[in-house]
C-alpha cells in the first residue's frame, strides 16, 4: 500500500541511489525502504522515456520492470494515430498504463486490465492525478475476463517478454499471453487487434504467425529500434501483403518515415556504385530492421555500395530517412593502412557494414580513438575491395 508517508519519502529521495537507501534502511524504521527503493528505481527508469510523467511527483511507478517495459512518450503518442475517436479499446496488458493513458487522450473509452493489484492501484491513482475519466481499471487475468468484455472495437496488448526466473524471451509462443493461441478469440470479440511486439522478432516469420495483419509499424527512438506494432483485422480490407511503416524519432529534427511492402522490396533491384560518390547515406534503424534494402534505393534514386552493405551514395544531396554524410575520401584497407591510419585520423566515429572486423577489433587494429567530428565507415565495395570511407556531417562542411 502506498501511504502518504511512503509517497513523501519517495519524493524526498527521488534523486538518491536506491542501493544507498537500502544500505541505510535502518535510519527509516517507519518506511518500507526495500519497496520505496524499488519505486525510486522505477521512477529513474522512466526519466528519459516519460519526461512529463517523471516531472510529476504525484505519479506512482509500481515496479522497475513495469517502467522498463512501458512505451516511451514518442511511441505512445504514435499509437494514437492508429485509433479512431469513437472506439472502445481494451488494453489487455495494462502495466504502467502509459499506452492506456495516451489512447484515452484520443478515443472515447479505454478499459485497462492488469493482473497485479499493485499495478492497478498505481494506475487508478495516476489516472486520477492526470485528470483522466474515461479509463476503467479492472484487476484480473485478461484472458479469463474476455467473456465479460462487450462492445470492444479494438484489443491492444503488449505480451510480457519475461519467462521463468525473469528470463527474457522473444518468441511469441513464449510470451504471456500467447498471441498465436489467443488471436482467434480476440477477433471474435472485436474487429481488430493492435499488438506491441519485441523489436527482436523477424517480421516475415511473425506475419506467418499472425494471419490477417494489415499493417506493421516499426518504431525507433533516437535511431534505436524499440517496438514492432502489428495491426490485425478480423476482415482485412484486401487480401494483399501488409504495408510496412518505418518510423524513427531522432534526437533532433523531424520524424522520419518510410512506407513500403514486401512485394515492392522483392521486385526492386538497386544499382551498384563503383565507389562512394559525394554523399553517403545510412538508413535509420527502422528501415534496416524492416529490410527495405532495395526499394529505398529505387525510391530515392540512389546506388548501393554493395548488395550486402546497405550503404547508399549519390552525387547530389537528397533528403533521406536516415543519416547523411559528406564523403571526404575512400581509403583502401590493407595492412599498411591499419598500422598508419591513426596518424592521419587519430579520432573517429566508427561504423562497420559488411566488413570482416567488428568495431572493437577495428579500433584495436588501428588505434583510432572514439568520438570527434570524423565518421569512418568500414565496408566492402561492389568490386569486393575493402575500404574505409572518411565522412563528416553536412553541417560540419564550410559553406563559405
Question: What does this 3D model show about the protein?
Answer:
The protein is of the alpha/beta class and 400 residues long. Helices cover 31% and strands 26% of the residues. Strand 1, helix 7 and strand 2 (109-114) form a beta-alpha-beta unit.
Short key terms for the protein model shown above:
single chain, 400 residues, alpha/beta, nine-stranded mixed sheet, 26% strand, globular
Content of β-strand: 25-35%
Low-confidence stretches: none
What is the rounded Rg?
25 Å
Question: Can you summarize the main beta sheet?
Answer: 9 strands, mixed
Strands of the widest sheet, in order across it, are: 3-2-1-4-5-7-6-8-9
Global geometry: globular
Percent range for helical residues?
A: 25-40%
Number of helices: 16
N- to C-terminal distance: 65 Å
Outline the secondary-structure elements.
Elements: H1 4-12, H2 18-23, H3 33-45, H4 51-54, H5 64-69, H6 73-80, E1 88-91, H7 98-104, E2 109-114, H8 117-129, E3 135-139, H9 142-145, E4 154-157, H10 179-189, E5 192-197, H11 203-209, E6 213-221, E7 224-233, E8 243-249, E9 256-261, H12 262-267, E10 279-283, H13 285-290, H14 295-300, E11 303-304, E12 312-314, E13 322-332, H15 335-344, E14 347-353, H16 359-366, E15 369-380, E16 386-392
Parallel strand pairs: 1-2, 1-4, 2-3, 4-5, 6-8, 14-15
Antiparallel strand pairs: 5-7, 6-7, 8-9, 10-12, 10-13, 11-12, 13-16, 15-16
Amino acid at each position: 500500500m502506498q501511504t502518504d508517508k511512503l509517497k513523501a519519502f519517495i519524493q524526498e529521495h527521488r534523486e538518491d541511489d536506491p542501493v544507498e537507501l537500502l544500505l541505510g534502511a535502518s535510519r527509516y524504521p517507519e518506511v518500507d525502504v526495500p519497496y520505496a527503493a524499488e519505486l525510486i528505481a522505477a521512477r529513474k527508469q522512466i526519466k528519459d522515456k516519460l519526461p512529463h510523467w517523471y516531472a510529476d511527483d504525484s505519479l506512482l511507478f509500481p515496479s522497475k520492470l513495469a517502467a522498463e517495459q512501458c512505451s516511451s512518450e514518442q511511441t505512445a503518442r504514435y499509437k494514437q494515430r492508429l485509433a479512431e475517436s469513437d472506439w472502445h479499446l481494451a488494453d489487455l496488458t495494462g502495466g504502467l498504463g502509459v499506452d492506456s493513458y495516451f489512447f484515452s487522450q484520443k478515443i472515447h473509452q479505454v478499459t485497462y486490465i492488469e493482473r497485479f493489484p499493485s499495478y492497478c492501484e498505481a494506475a487508478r491513482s495516476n489516472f486520477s492525478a492526470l485528470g483522466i475519466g474515461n479509463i476503467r481499471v479492472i484487476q484480473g487475468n485478461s484472458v479469463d475476463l474476455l467473456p465479460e468484455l462487450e462492445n470492444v472495437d479494438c484489443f491492444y496488448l503488449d505480451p510480457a517478454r519475461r519467462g521463468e526466473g525473469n528470463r527474457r524471451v522473444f518468441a511469441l509462443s513464449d510470451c504471456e499471453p500467447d498471441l498465436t493461441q489467443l488471436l482467434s478469440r480476440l477477433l471474435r470479440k472485436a474487429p481488430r487487434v493492435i499488438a506491441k511486439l519485441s523489436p527482436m522478432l523477424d517480421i516475415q516469420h511473425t506475419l506467418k504467425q499472425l494471419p490477417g495483419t494489415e499493417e506493421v509499424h516499426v518504431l525507433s527512438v533516437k535511431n534505436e529500434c524499440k517496438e514492432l506494432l502489428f495491426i490485425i483485422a478480423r476482415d482485412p480490407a484486401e487480401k494483399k501483403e501488409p504495408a510496412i511503416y518505418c518510423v524513427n524519432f531522432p534526437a533532433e529534427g523531424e520524424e522520419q518515415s518510410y512506407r513500403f511492402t514486401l512485394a515492392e522490396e522483392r521486385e526492386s533491384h538497386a544499382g551498384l556504385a563503383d565507389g562512394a560518390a559525394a554523399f553517403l547515406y545510412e538508413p535509420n534503424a527502422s528501415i534496416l530492421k524492416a529490410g527495405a534494402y532495395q526499394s529505398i534505393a529505387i525510391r530515392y534514386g540512389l546506388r548501393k555500395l554493395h548488395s550486402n552493405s546497405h550503404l547508399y551514395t549519390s552525387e547530389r544531396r537528397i533528403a533521406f530517412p536516415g543519416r547523411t554524410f559528406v564523403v571526404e575520401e575512400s581509403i583502401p584497407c590493407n595492412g599498411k593502412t591499419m598500422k598508419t591510419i591513426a596518424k592521419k585520423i587519430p579520432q573517429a566515429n566508427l561504423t562497420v557494414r559488411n566488413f570482416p572486423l567488428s568495431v572493437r577489433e577495428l579500433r584495436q587494429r588501428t588505434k583510432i580513438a572514439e568520438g570527434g567530428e570524423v565518421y569512418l565507415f568500414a565496408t566492402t565495395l561492389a568490386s569486393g575491395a575493402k575500404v574505409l570511407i572518411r565522412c563528416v556531417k553536412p553541417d560540419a562542411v564550410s559553406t563559405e
